[in-house]
Amino acid sequence: MRYKLLGKSGLRVSELCLGAMTFGDDWGWGSGKDESREIYDAFVAAGGNFIDTADLYTNGTSERFLGEFMASDRERIVLATKYTNSAGGTDPNAAGNHRKNMMQSVEASLKRLKTDYIDLYWLHAWDFMTPIEEVMRAFDDLVRQGKVLYIGISDTPAWIVSRADAIAEMRGWTQFVGLQVEYSLIERTCERELLPMARELDLAVTAWSPLDSGFLTGKYNEGFEGQKEEGRLEHPMMAPLVDITERKRAISRTVVEVAAAVGKSPAQVALNWLCRQPGVMIPIIGARRISQLKDNLACTEFSLDDEHLQKLDAVSRIELGFPHDFFTNQMVMNFVYGGMRDRIDNHRN
């Protein structure tokens, strides 16, 4: 296992992050305590030190399990958890980004995790109600109190993240060091705004669902290869059902082909492609069985060559749209650079 700096911080985190959403079977799926412990131990034994959970995961069981598992080596673990979400109820303040929910959530997480600090505290999803200033000042208070060391933001539009970070910088408050988004060969739309922003602001990116809920493992190919029309794949192990499109079929087939050519599993190929993307890119690997974890961990033991990377990129590429495509128009480039673009060396590219 190699390590990366967590964005603009000096914190060293493993190149893979263990997602603990599968710790606990409260939601009708996931791993029991013994297998969760085995998964945790195997990840740490492989050199992993970066673990991601949330207060909502398996109704708090994920945090409780981790609190017990980390008891003997809390100092070496870079622990990340989240706040925002809550199960349905009658309290309108039990969810959201506001200060009250943040403060109540962090105290509850600290108790479940049996620790007095959280290394990385994520805002889980933007609520489009709480003022940005309220969020960033509350985060800064937690850092000054020592209950949180670093902050990050997940599932939020790029313009909000950028504005929040600028406000924090201007006022001397704690800034984000990480961005969490859905990213995989199947889901690449974050390449339009979110990933360029992360590179500009020096935010580490943790990618959730890097295997698209298991679709990129190749294990569902038999279930849809015989279908000629687009539709929804029904499979007893998939929840929720996955929409199947011809694009997804083509990507899955290509991943399987590349995997066969390099002698690796499809999951390893999909994760290796993700690790090779620009910036600080850290896949969140989740597993319900120890065999899945071990297979995923092996994605760091090789590097896809340029030919295979280009093949995967070509089949999964998305249209960036406006304004990105506008800027690549030859006439626009001629006007913007006065016809001198090919003679200007830009060290920032």
Provide key terms for this protein.
349 residues, alpha/beta, TIM Barrel, 2 domains, 8-stranded parallel barrel, two-stranded antiparallel ribbon, 13 helices, 12 strands, 38% helix
Question: How would you characterize this protein structure?
Answer:
By secondary structure, the protein is α/β, with parallel strands linked by helices. It has 13 helices and twelve strands. Strands 3-4-5-6-7-8-9-12 form an eight-stranded parallel barrel, surrounded by five helices. Strands 1-2 form a two-stranded antiparallel sheet. β7 (148-154), α5 (158-171) and β8 form a beta-alpha-beta unit. α1 packs parallel to α10, α2 packs across α3 (99-113) and α8 (246-262) packs antiparallel against α11 (306-316). Residues 226-240 have low confidence and may be disordered.
Which secondary structure elements does this structure contain, and how are they paired or packed?
Elements: E1 3-5, E2 12-14, E3 17-19, H1 33-45, E4 50-52, H2 61-69, E5 78-83, H3 99-113, E6 118-123, H4 132-145, E7 148-154, H5 158-171, E8 176-182, H6 194-201, E9 204-208, H7 221-224, E10 231-233, E11 242-244, H8 246-262, H9 266-275, E12 281-286, H10 290-297, H11 306-316, H12 324-327, H13 330-336
